Amino acid sequence: MNVVEFDVVELPATDHPEPGETAPEFTRPLVGEEYWADASLSEVVDDGPVALVFHGMDGSFPATYMWNEVRDREWGRRLQVVGVSVSTPYAHRRLIEDREMDYQLFSDPGAGLADDYGVAHDLDGMAGVTEHRPAVFLIDGDRTVRYAWVSREWPEFPDYDEIEAAVDDL
Amino acid sequence: MANDQITLYRLQACPFCERVVRVLDEHDVDYESRFVEPMHSDRNAVARLTGKRTVPAIRDPTTGVTMSESANIVDYVEATYGDGGA
Q1: What is the Cα–Cα distance from A62 to A97, expressed in whole angstroms?
Q2: Superfamily of domain covering A20-168
């Protein structure tokens, strides 16, 4: 009988923003259903707490599964939900349309935010590509991190129930 | 984003849009760029604003003006924010 070996790939620990710390400020194109425009994290949190969701490039299966789950759980009814990946605004537009998600996505093609947030991921072996590993930060109106999860395996998905409990505590 | 900022709807690599960008920059006019898709059918935000789907298009909350067509916009910016303007 053949046993399929399945090794989960471990990712190294990172130095990411922890609860209580101020989330690093940034400005990137923020893509919505109809257009994109530069926006800063401060501008976003001015409208209330946000779940900042880092994910692999649009079209990868973990990104698809995660957004389906977040959409179905209707997190948008409880706080702002904003994604980040290395994909272009054009690809983000397609993801928003395909997944029928009511959420905006930051475009960070140079993955500069991956270093700022300690979520860099260059494991997949595509030459010249660094992207963001799955991660979720809950950030309040003062730009203070209230919850942080950064994946340590590839693939790994957020603990959605735990995040919802943290949202209740905001 | 200041509320009195001009909103400019533009398309990447559109020379008519760049023409408007140049005149806004020349006159130090503050604006927010909103980028739209090449497909006209994907430009509902522009259609709601001007009744057309062409870019460039601007909205100037200070004067209440919305308009499209780069030549019109250039004339408007020069008249409103140029030396002879308000």
Answers
A1: 17
A2: Glutaredoxin (3.40.30.10)
User: Per-residue pLDDT tens for A69-82?
Assistant: 999 999 999 999 99
Residues forming beta bridges with residue A153, ordered by sequence position: A10
Q: Find the residue in B nearest to A30 (Cα).
A: B34
Instruction: Give the CA angle between residues A141, A63, A27 to the nearest 5°.
Output: 40
User: Is B1 contained in some domain?
Assistant: no
Condensed to tens digits (0 to 9), the pLDDT of residues A112-144 reads 999 999 999 876 778 889 999 999 999 999 999
**Domain residues for B17?**
6-81
Q: What is this model's ipTM?
A: 0.87
Mutate to test the interface with A, among B8, B37, B59 (most CBs of A within 10 A): B37
How deeply is A75 buried, as exposed, middle or buried, from its count of CB atoms within 10 A (0-12, 13-18, 19+)? buried
**Band of the pLDDT at B84, cuts 50, 70, 90?**
low
Nearest CA-CA distance, residue A146 and chain B, Å: 25
Alpha-helical runs (H) found in B37-85: 44-50, 70-81
